[in-house]
Amino acid sequence: MGLDFTAIDFETANSSSASACAVGLARVRDGRVVATDGWLIRPPAGHDRFFELNIGIHGIRPEHVLDAKSWSDQLGDIAAFVGDDVLVAHNAGFDMAVLRRACDATGDLCPEYRYVCSLQVSRKTYELESYRLPLVAAAAGFLDFAHHDATADALACAHVMIDAAQRAGAYDVVELAMLLGLRVPQIPAPTSVPLPLI
User: Fold this and answer.
1) How far is residue 36 from each of residues 9, 32, 155, 163, measured CA to CA in Å?
2) Edge-to-edge, what's the strand order for the sheet holding 5-12?
3) Is 196 inside a domain boundary?
4) Which of 48, 57, 165, 174 is the most exposed place for a label (fewest CB within 10 A)?
5) pLDDT digits over 61-76, tens only?
6) Domain that holds residue 155
7) Is 22 helix (H, G, I), strand (E, B) or coil?
8) String of b and e for 94-123 (b: at least 16 CB within 10 Å)?
9) What rounded mean pLDDT belongs to the chain?
10) From the CA atom positions of the chain, what is the Rg in Å?
11) CATH value at residue 165
12) C-alpha dist (Å) from residue 99 to 141, 163, 179
């Protein structure tokens, strides 16, 4: 098994973790990015208000997602892209919460992916003043990407992990996590607690 994983990034419409409005994906095989994809998402009902703060970050507005697939309709597309891969995300707790909470909001079964956090990896790999994705990506040699574009962020995250694995001499992401003393958690089985509406 080589350095195979899928990097993922979500953007949200508001402060609710369930309010996914965009996803970006980057597939890595044997330490090379071989595919990227991304699309807009119509957030789940009750979590579909767009806050100005969030719009200011990613530029996605309500009218942009009017014709986008709903969370339930596009969840299969994410699963098809990811397959059996370990997921990687920068501040993975946020992105895994989006997956879990959006599924809770729609009643969809959330895939129980294993995942690694590239933010944690970067803190163990680089000596930087800040571990925001643009600075970490630059340290990994990946420069000038459109931060908060979900696909660009996923691609940057993938490059960070590839560079970190090379520096650590790791052959896969689980080995990389182990070498750095990090856990490889798994998204827990779904709960039946309803989410408050935004």
Assistant:
1) 12, 11, 7, 18
2) 32-40, 20-29, 5-12, 87-89, 115-117
3) no
4) 57
5) 999 999 999 999 999 9
6) 5-179
7) strand
8) ebbbbbbbbbbbbebebeebbbbbbbbbbe
9) 95
10) 16
11) 3.30.420.10
12) 29, 26, 27
C-alpha distances (whole Å) from 40 to each of 22, 30, 54, 77, 181 are: 4, 28, 14, 12, 35
Does residue 81 belong to any structural domain of this protein?
yes
Q: How many helices (H) and strands (E) does the chain have?
A: 7, 5
C-alpha to C-alpha distances, 158 to 30, 51, 108, 198, nearest whole angstrom: 12, 29, 27, 32
Q: Which residue has the higher pLDDT, 144 or 20?
A: 20
The answer to whether residue 89 sits within a structural domain is yes
Number of independent structural domains in the chain: 1
The residue ranges of DSSP E strands in the chain, in sequence order, are 5-12, 20-29, 32-40, 87-89, 115-117
**Inside any domain, residue 192:** no
Count how many Cα atoms sit within 13 Å of the Cα of residue 170 in the half-sphere of its side chain: 21
Least confident window among 40-44, 121-125, 193-197: 193-197
Q: At what angle do helices 92-106 and 71-82 cross, to 10 degrees?
A: 130
pTM (global) more than 0.90: yes
The pLDDT value given to residue 192: 57
Name the nearest CA neighbour of 108 among 14, 15, 41: 41
